[in-house]
Specification:
Layout: H1 2-25, H2 45-54, H3 74-88, H4 99-114, H5 121-126, H6 134-161
Helix pairs in contact: 4-6
Length: 162
């Protein structure tokens, strides 16, 4: 009999505790800010469009904050992903990167696209337009290879100007 009573008390505590914790969690808000642009990526229109659709929410200062980013604890995960994405690669700060940094970041993008780790699966579920087709991947790869090949040349041109 006491086991049934204790089990009911535990069930009641859980039924009250979880919604209570979720309600309290709503008071810890995140920053839905988009810092100013510091030199956006220059790319052909079709490349820019694909990158905007698949990458810019986490890898730029132009994040489109979806409705679920206002609900804790999901908002905390979204904020963490955006902050981490911006630290790794920020297309809104592309103009402030050194040419060798741009080259390294493009090589990173190539690896992640080939490994199909970007955009992450959980992002693609909620944003089906972010999925990249084989044609998209081929176009991005061709563009990245040409940009990577040009980076040392751009770097030496900048050094000659200075």
């Amino acid at each position: 009999m006491t086991e049934d009573f204790e089990m009911r008390k535990l069930s009641q505590a859980i039924l009250i505790g979880i919604p209570g914790a979720l309600l309290i969690a709503q008071f810890r808000t995140i920053q839905w800010a988009n810092p100013p642009l510091k030199g956006d990526l220059v790319a052909p229109p079709q490349i820019k469009t694909r990158l905007r659709q698949a990458c810019y929410d986490c890898h730029s200062n132009e994040t489109q904050w979806p409705w679920y980013s206002y609900i804790a604890p999901i908002s905390w995960l979204v904020e963490r992903d955006v902050e981490g994405g911006r630290r790794q690669l920020n297309f809104s700060e592309w103009g402030s990167y050194y040419p060798t940094t741009r080259k390294r970041k493009l090589q990173w993008v190539e690896r992640t696209l080939h490994g199909e780790t970007m955009p992450p699966w959980h992002y693609r579920i909620l944003h089906p337009g972010a999925s990249l087709t084989p044609q998209d991947l081929a176009e991005l790869e061709k563009w990245m290879e040409s940009e990577i090949a040009e980076q040392p040349q751009k770097s030496s041109e900048n050094n000659m100007e200075n």
